[in-house]
Amino acid sequence: MKKTGQHLVLAGIAYSVIHAASANAGYDTHPKFEQFASELEKEYQVPVAEAREWLAQAQKMDSVLEAIARPAEKTLEWDRYQDIFLTSKRISQGKEFMQTHKDLLAAAEAKYGVPPEIISAIIGVETFYGQRQGNYRVLDSLATLAFDYPQRPIFWRELKAFFAVAEHEKLDPATMKGSYAGAMGYGQFIPTSFLAYAVDGDGDGKRDLWGNPADAIFSVANYFNRHGWKPGEAVTQRVHVSGTDYEAVANDNLKPQWTVAELQAKGVKPTESAKADAPASLVKLIGKNGAEYWLGEYNYYVITRYNHSRLYAMAVYQLSEALKS
Predict the structure, then answer these.
(1) Residues near 78 by Cβ (< 8 Å), separated by ≥ 6?
(2) pLDDT in tens, 87-145
(3) Other CB atoms closer than 10 Å to residue 17's CB: what's the count?
(4) How far apart are CA 126 and CA 199, in angstroms?
(5) What is the pLDDT of residues 53-103, one digit of tens each?
(6) How would DSSP label each residue in 212-252?
(7) Which of 120, 83, 97, 182 is nearest to 316 (CA)?
(8) How far apart are CA 231 and CA 227, in angstroms?
(9) Nearest Cα to Cα of residue 46 among 161, 133, 148
(10) CA–CA dist 144, 29 (Å, integer)
(11) For the chain, what are the domain ranges?
(12) What is the helix (H) or strand (E) element at residue 168, kind and residue range?
């Protein structure tokens, strides 16, 4: 039967309603839900019914997909990147943070060997000392990235770990906030890092990285300790370069592949003392006055385990030096 104009309008409205409902449907209807829920139950003993209930509430976030495609570490050079983190306000707020939590920071250093200024600089770079922890629902962010961003399958794993965090810590996934990439709390731990490195800093039986500075400070220190931080050793120093041999090794690997002596033989001259047999890399950054060269010592590499970026490590180091002074 031929449709009248009224029928066409009604049909169009019905289609729009159905289409909108489909677009806003939770991820429990996604074709890969069953696979996800099965893996989640096997790996973390989270029941399929809970995964279905949680993912039914998750919403796709286009803003998350846009943000993940343009991280600052890949779009900026050091000349502009440093201006984000090495500000007078971040330094002054950091000194206040260190004074407020001096006893916690001292206790964390005594236990894990990580200096207060490094712990504070990490928290300062990540969340402005806990003040900017992110306003995304982690449930939405990680569901979006896990199911709709196949370029980075790591987020599939992070979403499973997120549900495990919620289960273990007795938290409601629908209320947990974080960054667009699913990082959480003062130190912006991704869920797998939360499971592996978060600790109860004050012995209250909880690991609260959102509201408890003790847990946050001790967890950051534990992370660095577990990744091989060397107490009392340097992080980096400016170096001079000469000849051309150094060019082949500049930024060749985040993990030190050379010794200080080997880099010296390639035309790298430290400006401060350094052990000849110490592992090191040559870091090249584009600063405000052109190329800068730095000796990436092992503790510099450890900072990149927190965020795999030379720019990030340098921002943390220079902020820590400003806080220490």
Answers:
(1) 285, 286, 287, 292, 311, 314
(2) 999 999 999 999 999 999 999 999 999 999 999 999 999 999 999 999 999 999 999 99
(3) 10
(4) 18
(5) 999 999 999 999 999 988 777 779 999 999 999 999 999 999 999 999 999
(6) -HHHHHHHHHHHHHHTT--TT---EEEEEE-SSGGGGTBTS
(7) 120
(8) 12
(9) 161
(10) 13
(11) 236-309
(12) helix 154-169
Alpha-carbon span 315 to 306, nearest angstrom:
12
- Tell me the Ramachandran region of residue 196: left when phi exceeds 0, alpha when psi lies from -120 to 50, beta otherwise: alpha
- Could you say which architecture CATH assigns to the domain 236-309? Orthogonal Bundle (1.10)
Question: Rounded to two decimals, what is the model's pTM?
Answer: 0.90
Amino acid at 29: T
Do 52 and 173 contact (CB within 8 A), yes or no? no
Closest CA to 65 of 162, 180, 156: 180
Tokens encoding 6: 């009224």
- Identify which of 27, 61, 264 has the alpha carbon closest to the alpha carbon of residue 180: 61
If pLDDT is split at 50, 70 and 90, which confidence band does 24 have?
low
Determine which one of 109, 117, 126, 297 is catalytic. 126
Given a contact cutoff of 8 angstroms between Cβ atoms, the answer to whether 164 and 46 are in contact is: yes
> Is 41 a known active-site residue?
no
Written as six digits, the tokens of 120 are 């504070």
How far apart CA 119 and CA 261 sit, in angstroms, is 30
Q: Are 128 and 90 in contact (CB under 8 A)?
A: yes
